[in-house]
Specification:
single chain; 381 residues; alpha+beta; Immunoglobulin-like; eight-stranded mixed beta sheet; globular
């Protein structure tokens, strides 16, 4: 009997090794259930309206399956995803993606072989949880469906959620493979109404201006401000974009309104570049290196899409340098008008880019011009 068990164990390990290499979750048994619903079971929404949804897990056989919040701990694990028919747009694939800036950095440095790149990371001190599933629902939400998807047009969509964050293997095991769980379908009727979108943008912008602008947002207003800002960004209209740029000042106010992310993800990139180019010249805006380089890269992307697709970065080195030089000079021309609380950081951005040579043997901005700009703003050259 011991030999038989050993042989079975070897077969199991070989099969598991093959699975981990393929990195595909296994289909969950029918007793594991993922429920997907809208809050209040509402099924009709305006295009761009916040859509609150809820998810819940349960299992008909208690304690056999475990929901793991840190799904990257599971082989082939992943979080919630929503797919719709007709197709909706995943938020992460909107026009002004972070990869644009990465490739722009490669263009700037292509003549000397250096590669610039960046990334964003985050952490959660209290989100590493594991919960055995029972017949009682483990509920998540409500959350905004808009954080996952953007509906491109008026239509009736059938949406299904799926995840691979459930396992049947206890936390003591070294290899824990994920189970793919699929939800019930949810039908959503999305209605386009430009009049509603316009009035909604005006209403949310007025509420944000009254309650949420400035450095001292009262504590009892913070959740309300998050909600107002989110509703404004989800509209994704020219009117909402204009309000987002108006309220964006490049500074940290102790909470994130999401406007910078919304501007990057807008469906109106040409308008975004135009509005933001004007906005960085205002006295109250703190201009960071990320903001300035993003504007230069977005403008180049709009004018020459191939630069960020199949073309070699070296082919667009000169254009990238000229775009960046244009925006650095624009910032320099407005440094002397900046408010004192944003001047120092904006001047650091100017100086950092102005001094770079990008492998061309001379600084982006001539030294004498740098001295004049900094002196005019009261900063030491």
């Amino acid at each position: 009997m011991q030999k038989l068990c050993l042989a079975a164990g070897v077969v199991f390990l070989l099969g598991l090794s093959s699975f981990t290499q393929n990195a595909e979750p296994l289909p969950a048994p029918d007793e594991v259930i993922l429920n997907f619903s809208t809050e209040g079971d509402q099924r009709q929404f305006h295009l761009g309206e916040l859509i609150p949804v809820k998810f819940s897990y349960r299992a008909s056989i208690p304690d056999r399956y475990i929901w793991v919040s840190q799904n990257n701990k599971l082989t082939a694990g992943r979080g919630l995803e929503i797919a719709c028919s007709p197709s909706a747009e995943p938020v992460s694939r909107w026009p002004l993606a972070a990869s644009v800036d990465d490739k722009f950095g490669k263009m700037l440095n292509s003549q000397c072989g250096a590669v610039m790149g960046g990334g964003f990371g985050g952490g959660c001190a209290d989100c590493d949880r594991e919960k055995p599933l029972t017949a009682e629902a483990l509920s998540l939400g409500p959350v905004a469906l808009n954080t996952y998807l953007r509906f491109p047009r008026s239509d009736t969509y059938t949406c299904i959620a799926s995840s691979a964050d459930v396992t049947a293997v206890s936390s003591g095991e070294k290899i824990r493979f994920a189970l793919l769980v699929k939800s019930n379908p949810v039908d959503l009727k999305i209605v386009e109404d430009s009049g509603w979108a316009t009035s909604a943008a005006i209403k949310y912008a007025a509420a944000y201006d009254k309650l949420c602008r400035g450095d001292d947002v009262p504590g009892h207003h913070s959740l309300e401000c998050f909600d107002i800002a989110a509703r404004l960004t989800y509209l994704d209209t020219p009117g909402s974009l204009s309000a987002e740029v108006k309220f964006f000042d490049g500074r940290s106010h102790g909470w994130d309104n999401g406007f910078w992310e919304a501007i990057q993800h807008t469906s109106y990139p040409v308008d975004a570049v135009r509005l933001l180019t004007d906005r960085i010249q205002d006295p109250d805006v703190q201009v960071s290196t990320t903001l300035l380089e993003s504007l230069a890269s977005w403008e180049l992307k709009i004018e020459s899409p191939d630069a960020f697709e199949t073309a070699s970065p070296a082919n667009y080195h000169s254009q990238a340098v000229e775009k960046l030089r244009k925006y650095v000079r624009l910032l320099g021309s407005r440094l002397s008008t900046k408010n004192t609380n944003v001047l120092v950081e904006s001047a650091k951005t100017y100086r950092m880019f102005a001094e770079q040579d990008y492998c061309e043997g001379q600084p982006l901005i001539p030294k004498q011009e740098q001295k004049q700009v900094l002196a005019a703003s009261g900063m030491r050259p």
